[in-house]
Amino acid sequence: MKKFYKATAVMGVSTFVTMLIGFARAKFLAVTLGPDGVGIFSQAVTFFQSAETLCGLGISLGITKYVSEAWKSRSFRSARDIAVSSLGLQTAAFAVFFLAAVLFAGNISRFVFSSVDYAWPVVMLSSAVIFSIFLISIESVLLGIGRADIFSSSRIVYTVAGLAVLMIAVSFGKGFGAIAYI
Q1: Distance in angstroms between the alpha carbons of the first and the last residue of the chain
Q2: Which residue among 78, 101, 115, 137 is least enclosed by CB atoms within 10 Å?
Q3: Largest CA distance in the chain
Q4: CA angle, corner 155, sides to 65 and 175, nearest 5?
Q5: Distance from C-alpha of 86 to C-alpha of 5, rounded to nearest angstrom
Q6: Comparing 50-54, 74-78, 166-170, which segment has the lowest mean pLDDT?
């Protein structure tokens, strides 16, 4: 039970810090991009998250569960096989999604942003989905092997690093820089 409380506390602190950084990011974007830029950015985030959900196949909880069971039974090869096969399935889903995004970038841009001006950013955003899927799967494995501490620390590090990247990207590229950040 002590391990449960410790993991919960670590995850709670991580979530709190991530939320604070999210508020700072929202304020920075509002001041820097203005209402129109924030609207475009919000649409880009929604598109990215939808693509991430689609390509992730909803299997992150399954990864955590089955890796955890394999890890507890000391079947490390099974844990590895679960992680690898999950990544393979997600990579295949990403490949289909990315091909569609490249082929229909103009149509997707018109649908999401009401303009074909964002066709290239649609392709750029789509190419980044695979990295997010891999990160989510790695986090699921870390939780499955009982390493919430590493998960939480990495979440804080990449959120802080992401804020720095966002500030630089927006300073140079305004709205397109914000989309590149995603």
Answers
A1: 38
A2: 115
A3: 54
A4: 120
A5: 29
A6: 166-170
Instruction: Give dist(CA 35, CA 47) in Å, integer.
Output: 18
Q: Which of left, alpha, beta for 115 (phi over 0: left; psi -120 to 50: alpha)? A: beta
Question: Which pLDDT does position 116 carry in this prediction?
Answer: 94
Q: Using an 8 Å Cβ cutoff, are 12 and 153 in contact?
A: no
Strands (E), 16-111: none
Q: Among all chains, which residue has been given the structure tokens 């690898």?
A: 84
Give residue for tokens 């950015």: 41
Neighbours of 132 (CB within 10 A): 17
Q: Which of 100, 93, 136, 102 is nearest to 121 (CA)?
A: 102
Long-range contacts (CB closer than 8 Å, 24 or more residues apart) made by 35-41: 36/175, 37/174, 37/175, 37/178, 40/113, 40/118, 40/175, 40/178, 40/179, 41/175, 41/178, 41/179, 41/182
Instruction: Render pLDDT for 30-54 as a digit per residue (tens, 0 to 9).
Output: 888 888 888 888 898 899 999 999 9
Give per-residue burial for 144-170: e unless 16+ CB within 10 Å, then b.
bbebbeebbebbbeebeeebeebbebb
